[in-house]
Amino acid sequence: MDVRVNDKIEMKKAHPCQNKIFTVTRVGMDFKIRCDKCGHEIMIPRSKAEKNIKKIIRE
């Protein structure tokens, strides 16, 4: 899956703040994503992230 830094991704599951849109801030073996609503940053393994991505939004 071709995910780049600064891409916006829509996840299948929502963050506890009820937002599904995240911004990718780091790509590698782990993804670092930031919630667009509350600004919380999360590190998740690449395999788990790719499984939970619904849509990639590029500008």
Keywords:
single chain; 59 residues; mainly beta; SH3 type barrels; 5-stranded antiparallel beta sheet; 5 strands; DUF951; DUF951 domain-containing protein
As residue ranges, the low-confidence spans are none
Helix-strand topology string = EEEEHE
- What would CATH call the class? Mainly Beta
* Average pLDDT, all residues: 94
Global shape: globular
Number of domains: 1
Distance between the first and last residues' Cα: 17 Å
CATH architecture descriptor text: Roll
Counting helices, strands and paired strands, the structural category is: mainly beta
What is the CA-based Rg, rounded? 10 Å
Percent of residues in helices comes to: 10-25%
> How many DSSP-defined strands?
5
Biggest sheet, spatial arrangement of strands: 4-3-2-1-5
Instruction: Give the biggest beta sheet.
Output: 5 strands, antiparallel
What fraction of residues sit in β-strands? Answer: 35-45%
CATH fold type: SH3 type barrels
Output the number of helix runs: 1
Organism: Ruminococcus bovis
InterPro entries: DUF951 (IPR009296)
Protein name: DUF951 domain-containing protein
